[in-house]
Specification:
Elements lengths: L1 E5 L3 H14 L4 E6 L2 H10 L5 E5 L1 E2 L2 E2 L3 H4 L6 E5 L5 H6 L2 E6 L4 H17 L2 H13 L5 E6 L2 E6 L3 E7 L2 E6 L4 E4 L3 H7 L5 E3 L4 E4 L3 E7 L3 E6 L8 E3 L4 H9 L1
Parallel strand pairs: 1-2, 1-3, 3-6, 6-7
Antiparallel strand pairs: 4-5, 8-9, 10-11, 10-14, 11-12, 13-14, 15-16, 16-17
């Protein structure tokens, strides 16, 4: 197997090479790049590898830009510290999406998947199959309850979810509150991460419902959201501000 590593941290690159050797000494790492520009130049000038091991956040931007400049048809394993790019990654013929720090088990699982899929699909078939499979991951609607009545709510009508006294509420853009039979942790798996962001333990908000973002004391951010009472404080903790900014600008 011929493989290319694209990673802008040298220590991470060396660690990946060590894990690859441990998995299979016959794997040939034919090149290591640190930027979008270098990767594009290499792929335009050389034969493409069997597999691309690609970090999403590079020194000169998101690595998705590579595929806008190069007609690359091979499979990709993405690595990243964030989980919000999963759907976009699978549109790029990704066969796996590994959250950092990359472990030996996670990398082995991705390589095993590559071997398994390569026996059954060619690149064109993978490209047609994987995005549709991933699109089905995320819920399109929820069943909410008011009293004894049940209602269907499409995800594009949701303003936010709120956890309160061990009950999770779905609030639509008009401010109507429904009880839903889900935990906040389960919702994070069911919601499209491009559309929804978990602010803190109490709130998951839709980007379509955010009206305003203002600086708040102690380096935090405060949101004004459709459907939320004025007295409801939606505050992003300081340690999540950077991740929120990346999500909002993606």
């Amino acid at each position: 197997m011929k493989l290319i590593i694209v990673e802008d941290e040298q220590l991470a690159t060396e660690r990946l090479k060590t894990m690859l050797r441990k998995y299979d000494p016959a794997i040939e790492v034919i090149a290591c790049m640190e930027s979008i520009e270098d990767t594009v130049q290499y792929l335009k000038a050389h034969s493409h590898p069997d597999l691309l091991l690609l970090d999403i956040h590079l020194s000169d931007g998101h690595s998705f830009e590579i595929f806008k400049q190069v007609n690359y048809s091979g499979p990709v394993v993405f690595t990243t510290a964030y989980d919000i790019y999963a759907l976009e990654a699978f549109k790029m013929l990704s066969i796996d999406y590994i959250l950092k720090p990359v472990t030996q088990d996670a990398l082995a699982a991705a390589l095993n998947k590559f071997k398994s899929l390569s026996l059954s699909f060619n690149a064109a078939q993978l490209r047609s199959q994987l995005p549709s499979i991933q699109e089905q991951r995320y819920k399109k609607r929820f069943l909410g309850k008011i009293g004894q009545r049940l209602f269907f709510i499409d995800t594009n009508e949701i303003a936010f979810f709120q956890a309160e006294n061990k009950i999770v509420y779905l609030i639509d853009k008009s401010g109507t509150r429904y009880i839903v039979e889900h935990t906040m942790e389960k919702l994070e798996d069911q919601l499209d991460p491009r559309q929804f962001f978990r602010l803190n333990r109490k709130f998951i908000v839709s980007i379509q419902a955010i009206q305003q973002v203002k600086p708040y004391f102690n380096s935090r951010l405060k949101l004004s959201v459709l459907g939320a009472p004025q007295q409801e404080e939606m505050v992003i903790s300081r340690d999540r501000v950077a991740e929120f900014r990346q999500w909002a600008e993606y």
